Amino acid sequence: MNMKKILFLISIGLMLFCSCSKQLDKTDDSAYTSGTKKLNIQLVYPDKYTSLVRAGVTVKVINPSTGVEYDLTTDANGACSANLQYGFYRVSVSDKGVSESGTIPLFNKSIDAVKLQDTTAGEINLNVGLVLSYSSQLVIKEVYFAGCYNPSTSKSYYADAYMTVFNNSDQVAYLDSLCFGCADAYNSLSSPSVWSYTDANGQKVIRDTIPITEAVWQWPGTGTSFPVQPGKYAVLVIRGAINHTLVNPSSVDLSKSDYFVCYNSRYTNKTYHPTPSSNLDGHWLDLLWKQGTSTAYAFSLSSPTALIFKIQGYTAQEFINDPNNRSRKPGSSSAFEYIMVPSSFVLDAVEVMRSTTEYKRLPASVDASYVLFPTASNMYVGHSIYRIVDEAATAKAGRTILQDTNNSLADFAVSDHQLLKDEQ
Fold this sequence. Notes:
Blueprint lengths: L2 H11 L3 E2 L17 E9 L13 E6 L4 E6 L5 E7 L1 E10 L8 E12 L7 E6 L1 E4 L3 E7 L3 E3 L4 E3 L3 E7 L5 E2 L4 E3 L14 E3 L5 E3 L2 E4 L2 E4 L8 E2 L4 E7 L20 E2 L24 E5 L14 E5 L6 H6 L4 E3 L8 E6 L3 E8 L17 E2 L2 H4 L5 E4 L3 H7 L10 H4 E4 L9
Parallel strand pairs: 2-8, 21-22, 27-28
Antiparallel strand pairs: 1-5, 2-5, 3-4, 3-6, 6-7, 7-9, 10-13, 10-29, 11-12, 13-21, 14-20, 15-19, 15-24, 16-17, 18-26, 19-23, 24-27, 25-26, 29-30
């Protein structure tokens, strides 16, 4: 077979068609696919919100094996279709309604491992049941976790990490009893999450109860001890509540008196957990739960998740102490347990992934996608992820409002420096 004929056959195998008679944004250039299958997607809104069915909603389809993405657009019936090459796909949707008593209803869904192959007869029909959540008063503004370069030693520096929590509303918010933790696994996944189930469509869906790994931290206070004014933020130090700039000018001063810190004597690694500055006395988060023998809190240097949540119906300690709220990892013989937090408890969350070929850990109800943070270009250079400003909402309200759609791909960006440095 000559080269022209080979190239012709490959080009035929790569053709894609969208139901809206538009070309998909990208094409898959894999030479190893050998057929196409039609995927029909129907968005299903909760009963109260069926009036939102309309044309123009974006449905993102990605092949994790290749990293190739397609943006489909719904028709007036909330449906879209595409002929896609054989493979496994991730389908995600993010939409929002109009404000209800100061909160905005959000509709998200992410389905991993949608299977298109020649052994499946006919077209694939996928009903995407959107999950309702609401915009939160408190949102994660910035997470700095990947370290920076120390020009004094000519080495990478990773003893510093922090997160900021922003009051996105027009009323005073309180940090008291707010919890912080990370979901399993520590780093982004190379295969689908084990914390998933097969839905009525035969598709793998991440369960809505989130496994918090290793530790649960909680802000102290009596209910109104730690206010955050509208448009202001609080800083949570995850590694090293000291002035890092004294040993590394590229780092940040994390010793301010109004900051908070994840610190407990059970974590004995002094590189990550030096004794906090006395400025933070009374601002140590309570360690409600710790599993394992780690001497340092394992907040990922490359691809963390971060969640803030409030336990409802119990005190947080009562919830954690209840064995019904703990679970071992499916398919594992390890005795290591996870605290299972319902997504309805989550105020905000963000997931970081190193590559589009990886798989999600968080359900769509708290984060429909992820922030892409490639390791090669972002490690040890002071980069962070941050929530962007909602320009339209800010102009209307006359105050800064950060974008909050529970979809990190739309809500977050990567900064070329720690934003906290801008105010120090």
